[in-house]
Design goal:
With about 750 residues, this protein is an alpha/beta fold. Helices cover about 35% and strands about 25% of the residues. The strands form five sheets. Strands 6, 7, 8, 9, 10, 11, 12, 13, 14, 15, 16 and 17 form a twelve-stranded mixed β-sheet that branches. The chain has a seven-stranded mixed β-sheet with strand order 27-28-24-23-22-29-30, sandwiched between helices. The protein binds zinc ion (2 copies) and fe (iii) ion.
């Protein structure tokens, strides 16, 4: 168990890039740390500046806040990646002298949100860049989305087609200028320009007139496809029910929530309740989408995020977005410019083809986007940021790991795909690719992997892939001609969480998600894996149940409900417990047959499907939904209710491990429902029971460190309560911070697993 001293002590590591060398940054960090009585160190390295400070979390947050607000005048932060780690017991604070002879790994910066200086110029009528949407400087602007090859020079970016005018060239060559060597430097005279197109390709307007006309169209309720930094957005007036409903219908988006862009923080706060932590995430240099609570009432129409207390919000991150939002003067839906699960469009001609039936107008420009980069998504969980989608603002910054890795690549999973390459202590995670469900997204996957390898001149000695033989990513690896290391899905989740927290085995990983291929060929998803140096043992799991219809259950929680009931009641007894009208009579008969014949009805231990099934039984969601909606609706059902009540469950000892029997819980839950007890109460009791399953299992696993990983831990109630209850019981708890708990994080775990497998072979 952790000692008292380390309970209150945490280590915060910040890796910052930007104008931080030779500007008095390290002495500033030193003074700030001493003032707050924090121990640790600061050092330059090939990635920028690495700061480590130890103390209690509140003081560390204070340090982090002041680091960004009290910067020395010439310093500027391009990225700040933060990670909480176990304390190591520093005795003082030191400036470490860096070994400048060390190898400098070329670092590609992420795309950077518009800096305050550039924004001021764009809004100043007398400035030569007044209302110029492509204004940027050394401190801001496009990077990753325009680089064609390294080194990062204008000739190696998509800006090479715009020769700089004399004035821009002079700025670029003047070491005292803010635009010294700003590769995408441009002005209205020499740089890219806007145009507004009809779906047929006719030019409606150009330059500033195009922007104003697009703003008028948005105000009039039209859908406009806007070419931004890393791809197209589909935008519409977020305060117009008709506009949002029409966008949803055309995009075939179901009820999946849409992100909203606000003109500035003040407007955002009128519609959303922000905690200090969330305010900082929203205004951070990475400028991600942040999930925050809506105010009630709000001018943002319910159709933006139906039956959802949260809203994904962001601020403008290019001058184009700043100008557009100011002209429209109301919040805009800003959703990926794609059709359902395809990757976002980056080219205006392709966009006109693919988004033809969706957008009324196309606001485009002639600066080519080299690679797609989606908006990132972040939320605050138990007081720390947790990334849910890692893309713009973060990609392709490496995640530094403790062990030295051979050159390896990982192809990721199937849903929320993301690939990775590794070299030495760095794992370069690609931007979010998406679900490999369509030809378009599979193509994007292939090109992102080859692009990342080319950019870093990386030749892998082996490819790590999921154990699932049917994943397109796995099949790609098998056909690559390279050695392939298969990695069990939930083991990859566990190693990803351990790697970013720099925690060594043994660790008990609670790896809960929708689905993953188990080593026994069944569908896993409710696993407790004991991780040691050699690999993992499956120490416990949720009792398996059937998924009638297999894959169809992902979008139909009612099928999971049938599976849960079928495992609990004999014969046809299960049918009477279904939620009202959830199947037709014929469907019920077909499902009954599947359950009893086991045809097309695989066994699963999936926690995600358990959530889905219970959501269906409570009548919250039945079919045609998006992956994870069942769990979300169940979490939202709790609302503001706080209770410690829970249901009973039992644990069966098997020869190979412990099986957690949730059937007593299900029976009690159904009895509650049939008594008319409120859904909020039942949902809270259900979540609390799952948390106690985790605590009970952790207590019997003989390991004092617990990692929480897998898509289920995107559920804030589950994650926060599990963290609190485990910590109260004396466990050290590790959760995701910089890589997503969902399948967007597994490429990192695959890399670590492959490195371990190769070491064993040697
Ligand atoms: Zn700037
Ligand atoms: Zn110019
Ligand atoms: Fe997963």
């Amino acid at each position: 168990m952790k000692s008292q001293a380390t309970d209150s002590m945490t280590r915060l590591r910040l890796v910052v890039t930007g104008a931080v060398q030779g500007v008095g940054f390290r002495p500033f960090v030193y003074r700030l740390a001493r003032e707050l009585a924090l121990c640790g160190n600061v050092a330059n390295d090939s990635q920028g500046v690495v700061i480590e400070v130890e103390g209690n979390e509140a003081t560390l947050e204070e340090f982090r806040r002041r680091l960004q607000t009290e910067l020395p005048p010439r310093a500027f932060l391009n990225s700040v990646e933060a990670c909480y780690l176990d304390a190591v017991g520093y005795g003082d604070f030191q400036i470490l002298h860096s070994d400048d002879d060390g190898p400098k790994s070329a670092l590609v910066l992420p795309d950077l949100a518009t800096c305050p200086d550039c924004l001021r110029e764009v809004l100043t009528p007398t400035d030569r860049r007044y209302r110029y949407p492509f204004t940027n400087c050394t401190n801001c602007g496009p990077r990753y989305s325009i680089i064609e090859s390294l080194p990062y020079d204008r000739a190696n970016t998509t800006m090479k087609i715009f020769p700089m005018c004399e004035r821009c060239r002079a700025e670029y060559e003047d070491p005292a200028n803010r635009r010294f060597h700003a590769q995408p430097n441009a002005c209205p005279e020499c740089g890219p320009q806007l145009a507004l197109w009809t779906p047929a390709g006719a030019v409606v307007a150009t330059r500033d007139e195009a922007l104003r006309a697009a703003a008028d169209a948005l105000r009039a309720g039209q859908v406009v496809a806007v070419k931004g930094l890393g791809g197209f957005h589909l935008m519409a007036d977020a305060t117009s029910g008709a506009a949002v409903t029409e966008l949803r219908r055309r995009k075939r988006r179901g009820d999946k929530p849409l992100a909203v862009m606000f003109g500035d923080l003040a407007h955002l706060e009128q519609e959303c309740e922000l905690e200090e932590r969330e305010r900082r995430l929203i205004t951070a240099v990475e400028s991600p989408i942040v999930l925050v609570r809506k105010r009630i009432p709000t001018a943002v129409v319910p159709a933006v995020a139906p039956r959802n207390p949260y809203l994904g919000v962001m601020l403008p991150y290019t001058p184009l977005h700043h100008l557009l939002l100011r002209s429209v003067d109301r919040p805009l839906v800003a959703t990926s410019g794609n059709l359902s699960e395809d990757p976002i469009c980056i080219d205006e001609h392709d966009a006109r083809e693919r988004l033809r039936g969706i957008a009324d107008l196309f606001l485009v420009h002639n600066r080519p986007i080299r690679r797609h980069v989606d908006d990132s998504i972040v939320r605050a969980v138990a007081g720390r940021p947790q990334i849910m989608r890692r893309a713009r603002g973060y990609a392709p910054l490496p995640v530094r790991v403790q062990e030295s890795l051979p050159p390896l690549a990982a192809v990721g999973g199937h849903l929320k795909n993301c690939v990775a390459i590794a070299n030495d202590h760095n794992v370069f995670l690609s931007q979010h690719v998406g679900d490999l469900e369509t030809v378009q997204s599979y193509r994007a996957f292939v090109s992102v992997l080859s692009d990342l390898s080319k950019l870093y001149e990386h030749t892998p000695i082996a490819l790590a892939a999921d154990l699932h033989p049917d994943y397109l990513s796995t099949q790609f690896a098998a056909k690559s001609g390279l050695a392939t290391v298969p990695v069990q899905h939930h083991y990859a989740h566990a190693l990803a969480c351990m790697a970013e927290n720099e925690v060594e085995p043994p660790v008990l990983a609670v790896s809960w998600d929708g689905t993953g291929y188990g080593v026994d060929g069944t569908v896993w998803g409710g696993e407790f894996l004991l991780i040691d140096d050699a690999g993992f043992t499956r120490s416990a799991w949720l009792r398996p149940f059937q998924l009638p219809g297999g894959e169809a259950a992902v979008r139909e929680p009612r099928r999971s409900a049938a599976g849960l009931l079928g495992a609990t009641f004999s014969g046809s007894g299960w049918q009477r417990y279904l939620a009202a009208d959830c199947f037709t009579e014929a469907e019920t008969r077909a499902i009954d047959q599947m359950l009893h014949s086991s045809l097309n009805s695989p066994q699963t231990t999936s926690a995600g499907r358990l959530f889905d099934g219970v959501a269906s039984l409570l009548g919250l969601v039945q079919s045609n939904c998006y992956e994870g909606e069942g769990g979300m609706q169940l979490e939202f059902a709790i609302g503001a209710l706080r209770s410690d009540e829970r249901y009973e469950f039992t644990v069966d000892e098997h020869e190979t491990g412990r099986e957690i029997d949730w059937r007593p819980m299900l029976r009690a839950l159904l009895a509650d429902r049939d008594k008319g007890i409120a859904a909020a109460t039942i949902a809270a009791r259900f979540h609390n029971t799952l948390v106690e399953m985790i605590v009970t299992t952790a207590k019997t696993a003989g390991c004092d460190r617990v990692a929480l990983t897998g898509g289920c831990f995107q559920n804030t109630y589950l994650a926060e309560r599990a963290i609190r209850r485990l910590e109260e019981s004396g466990f050290a708890v590790y959760r995701h911070q910089r890589v997503p708990p969902n399948d967007g994080g597994i490429a990192l775990g695959q890399i670590i697993a492959a490195a371990r497998a190769l070491r064993k072979e040697m």
